[in-house]
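Hey L., structure's done. Input below.
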Amino acid sequence: YYHEWHARLPSTRGAARELRLHALRDGAYAILFGSLAWLEPHGWYTVVLAILLLTEIVITMLDFLEEDAHRPLPAGERVMHSLMAIVYGAFLAYLLPEMWNWWQQPTAPVPHSHGWLSYIMTAMACGVLASGIRDWIAANSHTNRAATHNG
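Output:
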């Protein structure tokens, strides 16, 4: 709601960097949701998952800095960010002990279904991937318009 309707980021000049950060984070979420829906990353694959999680956190911090530097955030968006951080913390509190167990297993992506939840996570992966592609295209559109205007 906030990015699309309130701030209208995809059509806002000067939002290219924030849109790229959103696209990168969406890509990380698509990989995370899509892979954990159907696989357990055992052994060294757990390290790949940890790197993905850390990368997502860094991208989110950079996004916060970008937002603070370039646009005022409505109070509701700040609250939403806080709630998302709490949910992400709960997610990590559940996932990290599992990751420790997976790390101790032989290296392999192990098929694992969570029943109907796997299908929901797959749909979430597709949705966030589509959103990320849209943001990436919008960011590049802003950059191309600025280059054409300045050059």
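The chain has a mean pLDDT of 88. Helices lie at 2-6, 16-38, 45-70, 75-103, 116-150.

-- N.
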